[in-house]
Design a protein that fits this description.
The protein is an alpha/beta fold. The chain is built from 9 helices and 14 strands. The longest helix has 21 residues, at 259-279. It binds pyridoxal-5'-phosphate (PLP).
Amino acid sequence: MPDRIYNFSPGPATLPYPVLEEAAKDIVNFNDKGIGLIELSHRSKEFMAVAEESEALIRELLAVPDNYKVLFLQGGASSQFFMIPMNLLGSGKKATYLNTGVWSKKAIKEAELFGDIEVAYSSQEAAFNRVPKDDEYNVDADSEYLYLVSNNTIYGTQFPDFPDKDVMLVCDMSSDIFSRPLDIKKFGIIFAGAQKNMGPAGVTVVIIRDDLLDKAADNVPTMLRYKTHADKDSMFNTPPTFAIYCVGRVMNWLKQQGGVAAIQKRNQEKAALVYSAIDDGEFYRGHAEKESRSLMNISFNLPTPELEAQFIAEAAAIGLDGLKGHRSIGGCRASIYNAFPREGVEKLVAFMVDFAGRNG
Ligand SMILES: *Cc1c(COP(=O)(O)O)cnc(C)c1O
């Protein structure tokens, strides 16, 4: 392996090194067939097999039941903000949203174009430093769905458990899909952009219960109907072939790691190392309330913005890159998705202890 820096970027993010190597080879000469992966027709039997394998691995790793479709769509996770209400709502139809940060706010704005949207909870006043427990909000009985963002990438908050309400869940899992086991049956739709925990940017994975495919009104454009893509196995038009291939390779890597339950344990251990460095003394301050802490993104502050800038610069100089926090809350953020190596976390923690010792 060449000298690699540790990349704490929130996304596009670190991918497993063996996947990068495999992809580099396959781009030039796929399976020694004398043609590059990204030159293959999406309708060739070679690429069809690639897409089928990616889907099969997703199904296997998350134990997706047969009455759910797995779709590979484009337009980023952000396009799901409007596709969901466009397909599921309509005049007079209601949905309930939990506002736990920028990504849910954007989804609420789009949903309001299509239906009657109830925002049942917001942590905006507290700079989105927490997610709610079930007893902190109500869901109206006539809501079509309850929408939430499972992991709030910017603030470093995560639902430790999914809501247990008498309503179908719709969930943006862009930054924590495949980081822990899921009970898919609770969800009508799960979606995630690939670039945080699954692969490169360019594909959005949508897992949708099949009875929802027929809900769209007649005036929903063909490309924006889930049913269009479900009926054609995500091949209605040219799909993002390279991204779909990479997702499959990352899933294959994840399976070799022992699957989502095994990776969850490793994610818990990695995050615990960073949180213990934060909690050890007064120098670092975690952004999230303890009960809402994310295992994927850890947002924290130092005593002053000057020290934060110095911390980020010194860290980068020793190969710990991408620790700057999101511009909306400032500070620092360590994104440590599935593929982020434990050694990089240990190196960060050692640097944090050293930096606090020198500057505290
Ligand atoms: C990054 C992110 C998005 C936006 O993804 P795009 O693919 O860039 O549209 C949406 N939701 C969450 C939770 C994210 O982390």
